[in-house]
Design a protein that fits this description.
This protein is mainly β. The chain is built from one helix and 13 strands.
């Protein structure tokens, strides 16, 4: 039709295009990569999984937790435990055989984007990095995870959700780089 224009919004791309191009079942490990805040001390901190918590630590655990995301946006650890966001506080966690999901937990809309085998992304300065990927959740207003100090060098991971804005005092906004395994 003459004069008809097709407009692509970020919401359209996020809701329809990105899930179709995301990896279905590739396994990957995660570490903190980039932050919009200068001098963030969490770069290259590693994801750790313990007792239903997913958190960052300076030293890589051995073995590193391995994640996967299916086409429906469900994220799992390699042992089958399902990852969720707690809607009460935006905290990232996982259900174990001994624990249930918190009321209202969100278990979908996770993404693993990218196809590289190194945890490197283009930087905010525009300098391209090596091919890599990110672990993301599309239900947030921005792409960043918030790493907040918790105990003994551990940083819990949060997302700012529509109905939940966690106390982000002392937290760092970061990307979570995905390294294929």
């Amino acid at each position: 039709m003459p004069g008809l224009k097709l407009l692509f919004s970020t919401a359209f791309l996020t809701a329809f295009v990105l899930p179709l191009t995301s990896a279905a079942t590739r396994s990957f490990t995660v570490q903190a990569y980039e932050s919009p805040q200068p001098d963030t001390p969490l770069l290259n901190y590693y994801l750790n999984a313990q007792g239903g918590r997913l958190f960052l630590t300076k030293n890589a655990p051995n073995p590193k937790p391995t994640l996967s995301v299916d086409r429906g946006g469900t994220a799992n650890l390699s042992n089958g435990n399902q990852i969720f966001l707690d809607t009460a506080n935006g905290k990232l966690g996982y259900a174990t055989s001994a624990s249930a999901f918190p009321p209202g937990a969100v278990t979908v809309d996770f993404l693993h984007l990218g196809s590289g085998t190194t945890p490197s992304l283009p930087t905010s300065s525009g300098v391209p990095g090596q091919p890599g990927g990110i672990f993301a959740w599309i239900g947030s207003d921005n792409r960043y995870w918030f790493a907040c100090p918790s105990d003994a060098g551990k940083y819990d991971l949060f997302k700012s959700m529509t109905n939940t804005v966690p106390n982000l005092s002392g937290c760092a906004a970061i990307d979570l780089a995905a390294e294929n395994v």
